[in-house]
Amino acid sequence: MLAASSQSPSAPSTSAPKAPSLNLLEGMVLTALFQAIPTYAGAALILKIAHSTALRPGIIGFVATATLIHVLMTSAAGPRYPRLLKQAYAADFYDATLSFTDKVLRWRTQPDGSLQLLSSTVMLALLSIAALAVN
């Protein structure tokens, strides 16, 4: 796949900036997939393990609503307050010069992104085991 390219696989390729709306959509999708959904799915699992009635109407609705609010607020406030929202806002997700896969590659290779991905994976795995054991 990269054999014809003179670039190394780990070096992100820069391209012409894409349309602002497409770039914003890509940033929102990546923020939802790698930051918001794991966080709120973990919160829902904790409530399920605790036999909470807070999510009676539906866990999927809770995760979807919380993710949507998270993504909208992060996309709006992140560029304005990057220091305040440094844990929630990944500037690479909104870099118009990077392709979709390069955005993921950059975020994944940074220490904060890698740690966040690892901690989300471990947390969700442990909570899933606990939720299965409780039932």
How does the overall form come out from the CA principal axes? elongated
Largest sheet: none
SSE order, as H and E? HHHH
What number is the mean pLDDT?
Answer: 84
Q: Output the structural class.
A: mainly alpha
Helix fraction by DSSP (H/I, runs of at least 4): 55-70%
Our measurement of the CA-to-CA distance between the termini, rounded to an integer number of angstroms, reads: 45 Å
Number of strands: 0
Number of helices: 4
Unreliable stretches (pLDDT < 50, length at least 5) are 1-7
Strand content: under 5%
Q: Could you tell me the radius of gyration in angstroms?
A: 17 Å
Summary, kept brief:
By secondary structure, the chain is mainly alpha-helical.
Q: How would you characterize the overall build of this protein?
A:
The protein is mainly α. The chain is 61% helix and 0% strand. Mean pLDDT is 84; it is low at 1-7. It contains four helices and no strands. α1 (20-49) crosses α2 (59-77) and α1 runs parallel beside α4. The chain has helices spanning 20-49, 59-77, 100-109, 111-134. The chain has one domain.
Short key terms for the protein model shown above:
elongated, 135 residues, disordered N terminus, single chain, 4 helices, mainly alpha
Give the arrangement of secondary structure elements.
Elements: H1 20-49, H2 59-77, H3 100-109, H4 111-134
